[in-house]
Amino acid sequence: MATMTAPVRVKRRKVQRGMTLTPRLGPGLGFGLAVVAFYFLIPIISSFEFSIRGANNNYSFEAYGRITTQPDFGEVLGLTARLALVTVFLSTVIMVPTVTLVHLTAKKFRRVVEFISLLPLVIPPVVLVLGVLATMPVSLKGTPYLLAFEYVMLSMPYTFRALDAGLGAIDVRTLVDAARGLGAPWRTVFMKIVAPNIRSAIFGSIFLTLALVMGEYTMAALLLWNTFPTWIALVGQQEATLAVALSIFSLLFAWVLLMALSAVERRQKARL
């Protein structure tokens, strides 16, 4: 006995010119973004206002003019810049192959690797400092570059998140299998295949690492090294206005680095 079914009518939405199928989020989104913007901008604006206010409530940029004339400014900024470069190099060399191999061969262990990368957020800095001091060779303990290994651990949560998101957005297994099938060595796979496809993620992790090094105070203070953040704290004990001006300078320096990295990324994309 044949079973008759009534035809199902599907109502199709007629899309007119100028319409979009993207759901409207309403005015609440704009209000929320405004609240977040004020939350971040008000402290920065207040700090800037304090840094240019004189003793008689006269506004001037005297504090900013004295930044480069400080006796230790070039030394501590140069040391912090070198530590940032070493940290970025070590973090990229370690984390890019690790996260790539997790996506290729051990995806079931992704949660384990993610958990390990989050440990620096919950382990006290004192414990991390003592652990690195106990494991590093004696020749490295007397140099400030010991801090670079500390910073690599601190940057792991941010580096892993950025790289994991970048690799999750591409079919990395197909790309790697195709390259390996054509005889490409692993070095070529990472440098010519994986890295160009996650360039945005790598630049994002680099910026987060640079921002961390420019603002990290605890580990440098525990190891008694005079980096840019510890020097700002030392200056703040004598001149609060100059210390706040240095903090604003550090923030602007990080933003300049971000814009430089973005410009490099756009230029490389334009060449492709």
UniProtKB/TrEMBL annotation:
GO BP term (any one): transmembrane transport
Pfam families listed in its UniProt record: BPD_transp_1
Protein name as annotated: Unannotated protein
Family annotation (PROSITE patterns): ABC_TM1
Gene3D superfamilies in the cross-refs: MetI-like
Keyword annotations from UniProtKB, A to Z: Cell inner membrane, Cell membrane, Membrane, Transmembrane, Transmembrane helix, Transport
InterPro entries to which the protein is assigned, alphabetical: MetI-like, MetI-like_sf
A GO cellular component entry from the record: plasma membrane
Membrane topology value: Multi-pass membrane protein
Regions crossing the membrane: 21-42, 83-104, 116-136, 142-160, 201-228, 240-264
Species per Swiss-Prot/TrEMBL record: freshwater metagenome
Keyword field contains Membrane: yes
Origin organism lineage: unclassified sequences, metagenomes, ecological metagenomes
Keyword Nucleotide-binding carried by entry: no
Compartment(s) where it occurs, according to its Swiss-Prot or TrEMBL record: Cell inner membrane
Domain ABC transmembrane type-1: 77-261
